[in-house]
Amino acid sequence: MPFSGLSAALAERERAHLLRRRRVVESACGPVVRVDGKHLLTFCSNDYLGLANHPDVVAAFTNAAREYGVGSGASHLVSGHHRSHQALEEEFAAFLNRPRAVLFSSGYMANLGVISALLGRDDLLIEDKLNHASLLDAGQLSGARMQRFVHGDMASLAQRLAGAGVASRTLVAVDGVFSMDGDLAPLPDMVQQTKASNAWLMVDDAHGVGVLGRHGGGVCEQFGLSTDDVPVLMCTLGKALGTAGAVVSGSDTLIDTLLQFARTYIYTTALPPALAEATRASLRIVQAEPERRAHLHRLIAQFRTGAAQLGLNVMPSDTAIQPLRVGDSDAALRISEQLEARGILITPIRPPTVPAGSARLRITLSAVHSAAQVDQLLQALAEVMPS
After folding, report:
1. How far is the C-alpha of 28 from the C-alpha of 116, rounded, in Å?
2. I need a labelling partner for 240 at 20 to 30 A (CA). Which of 83, 166, 179, 365 fits?
3. Does 187 score more than 60 pLDDT?
4. Using an 8 Å Cβ cutoff, are 92 and 98 in contact?
């Protein structure tokens, strides 16, 4: 019988308390959302600056939809590259202080396209063990020899670089902010090592852009790193920017290479022009309203102080991602259910998304949360977390 083994695999995942289930959201993104008929205070969104439902962003989208319609009509290289896409690429490159940028349909597609375009069977890809799944999948699909180094361990990275051997090209790929842990990659040390080894460095800054750096430029701005230091920078638009898609930025040579060889760019329909216009509006807000970042970082400090006073096992992070490590998957699921009974939504993160034995509540804060709402979260955690 076709698919006869699938039911057993699903049943096994459910027995291990690892079965994923979707929730139906019935309202716009915000600090309070309607989910499966209930209004819940949410601390699991990636809308870090609260731009997903910002009136200026919504207006830019609706006005552009009236002018350009809903779909782009084709891939970028056929007839789907609209002036809105071109303007967004130019503005994002200027925002990041990098020569050029190219727009992809998602961060996942960007990572697949970049690594497959740059590397082949004669090349070496080195990745942090806790990199996002898209970077790991990209390595497997590229055909390059792939090695992984111990998370954040520069001695382990040095060992991998020293063993590069006869690889034609060596690329080191890393998350700027690790999505499940909230910590930052030690990029200055990585820059030093990759330059000394004549390797390229690629950074996925999905969770840093808009949030980190004086102007919201992300981890590269935070560390003062240039295009020469980080030749390949990928930034998603569906998190702090509040829309969807991704931008890869770098030199003219890099961008021209991606236009010619990145299959996930070439062979897919371009994002709607209206979405590009919405992202242009959100990018203007990121630059014009630094108080959003300032408020977010005050909330992060408030939460960490309160969590420490409660003795909670919050992992080290100064970003909007504040993981509360539980360990056991069943326990993480149970705590999440108890929080929901108190009107708070935090989805438990369990293997295989995180390593076995490290299930957690991935708490995320947003600039549209209030200090009172963070206090409400801390009070609920004090009630449900085992002593």
Report:
1. 36
2. 83
3. yes
4. no
Which residue numbers are catalytic? 179, 207, 239
* Token duo for residue 346: 């935090």
Quick one: DSSP state of residue 147?
E
Tell me the three state secondary structure of residue 200.
strand
State how far the Cα of 236 lies from the Cα of 277, in Å rounded to an integer.
15
In angstroms, the CA 184 to CA 221 distance is: 13
What per-residue string of b and e applies to 185-194 under the rule 16 or more CB within 10 Å gives b? bbbeebbebb
* Residues present in the chain in total: 387
Task: Report d(CA 84, CA 283) in Å as an integer.
Answer: 13
Where in 228-345 does DSSP place strands (E)? 232-236, 246-250, 321-327, 344-345
| Residue 222, amino acid | Q
**Which residues, 6+ apart, have CB-to-CB distance to 215 below 8 Å?**
95, 221, 287, 290
* Residue 172 contacts residue 157 (beta carbons within 8 Å): yes
DSSP run (H or E) holding 128: strand 124-128
Q: Which two tokens stand for residue 318?
A: 């100064």
Residue with tokens 């698919």: 3
d(CA 130, CA 101): 26
Min mean pLDDT across 28-32, 167-171, 217-221, 223-227 is at 167-171
Please give the span between the terminal C-alpha atoms of the chain, in angstroms, as a whole number: 50
Residues 109-147: tens digit of each pLDDT: 999 999 999 999 999 999 999 999 999 999 999 999 999
Q: How far apart are CA 214 and CA 225, in angstroms?
A: 13
Is residue 205 within 8 A of residue 177, CB to CB? The reply is: yes
Q: How far, CA to CA in Å, does 231 sit from each of 49, 138, 163?
A: 27, 18, 22
Residue 48 near residue 208, CB atoms below 8 Å: no
Residue partners of 241: CB distance under 8 A and separation at least 6: 49, 51, 209, 210, 279, 282, 283, 286
> Collapsing DSSP states into helix, strand and coil, what is residue 378?
helix
